[in-house]
Amino acid sequence: MYNKQWYNTLEKSPLSPPNYVFGIVWPILYVLMFLSLYLVWTHKKCYPYCSPITLFIVHLALNMMWTTIFFKWQMPLLALVDLVLVLGLVVLSYTHFYKIQKVSAYLLIPYMLWLCFAFYLNLYIVVYNQKKL
Residue 86, Cα to own-chain centre: how many angstroms? Predict the structure, then answer.
């Protein structure tokens, strides 16, 4: 999947959780995200389609690209840029979802908080591994 040897050589934040935490957190966040999307998509203000759905799907595509950029291409700085775009688009999605169905927006809050934490972890790697990157 990715070069664990490369990743293990990087200086990581003291706040970096053990790897198994990511396997627990991400499935929960994806369930909340898709429930949020479903609530918007099926709401009378949106069904069968509204532009916030496209915004959310674009953000999701960028989210999925992060792993490839960071681990496969070993480009943490570009991954950080991708993460900024993901976070920006999910905040926009939140504001649009809030206008359609408030609960759907609230379901995105844990995800946005996790993205902020992921931003910090990614930034730490970029800053503290200049010679290795």
Answer: 6
Task: Identify the pLDDT of residue 85.
Answer: 98
Backbone dihedral region for residue 103 (phi beyond 0: left; psi -120 to 50: alpha; all else: beta):
alpha
Q: Using alpha carbons, select from 95, 17, 16 the residue that is nearest to residue 59.
A: 95
Distance CA 55, CA 57 (A): 6
> Which tops the pLDDT comparison, 6 or 91?
91
33: Cβ contacts below 8 Å, ≥ 6 apart: 60, 107, 108, 111
User: If you average pLDDT over residues 36-51, what whole number do you get?
Assistant: 94
What's the burial of 31, exposed, middle or buried (CB within 10 Å: 0-12/13-18/19+)?
Answer: exposed
Q: Which residue's entry shows tokens 């926009």? A: 92
53, 40 Cβ separation under 8 angstroms:
yes
Residue whose C-alpha is closest to residue 114's, from 86, 76, 73: 86
6's tokens: 């490369």
- What pLDDT digit, counting tens, does each position of 3-23 carry? 678 999 999 999 999 999 999
